[in-house]
Each structure stands twice: as C-alpha cells, then as structure tokens.
Structure prediction request, 110 residues.
Amino acid sequence: KLMYNKIGAIRCPALGGELVYFNSHGFKHLIRKSGLMRSERETRQRFSIVRLGVEIVSNTSGVSEHREMSDGSKITRFWLLKRKFGRVTIKVVLRKISDGRAHFFSVMKN
Prediction:
C-alpha cells in the first residue's frame, strides 16, 4: 500500500495530458471486485504489475477503448489503455465520474 500511495498523480498523454490520480478508488479495486475480496493470488498479481500500469499511463498516447455510462445523475467514463511487454499484454482502466478527476481504476494482464 505504501508504494501505491507514493504514486500520487501522473500526467496521461492519452487523456490530453490530464492528471490521473492513484487514489483509494483504484486501491480498493485492486483488492476487491463488486465488494468481494479478490483471491490472494489475484491481488498479488495485480500489485506486481502496478508499476507497469504507471508506465502505461505516463507513456501511452492512444486509448484502446472508451465507454460512458449514465445513471441519470452522473456520467461515468472509462478508458482502456494497453501495451505489450514481450508476450504479455498489460491493460489499465482509468475512470472519471462526472466532472471529477480521472483516476486509476484497475490493471490486469492478458
């Protein structure tokens, strides 16, 4: 958790240089899914690739996918960034709720 908290915010070329915050939303999603704890194996795997996720956010200029969802009172936007590291593809999900700040939401491999 200490390593994650030290990241803070980084500029994302794929979002036009907007700052992406590594906050509690992303941290919680690394250890939980739909409110349920992820397995220890999956949690360790995700934390082991967070540094690659940071590299992707700070160095990727294009968005692979973009999606918007609305519940009537707010619009939630998601962006998928991905990059190959050898044979492995790392995917990063960024999220922004209405006019809030963009934040890291998830990282996964293949």
